[in-house]
Amino acid sequence: MKSFLFLLCFFPLLAFAELPPSAYESMQAKAPEYLKIEVLRIDVSPGAKPEEQTVHVVAMVTQVIRTATEVKPDEIINIFYTITERPKGWVGPGAIPLLEDKQQTVAYLSKGETGDFKPEAGRMSFSNF
Question: 0.70 cut: is pTM over it?
Answer without folding.
Answer: yes
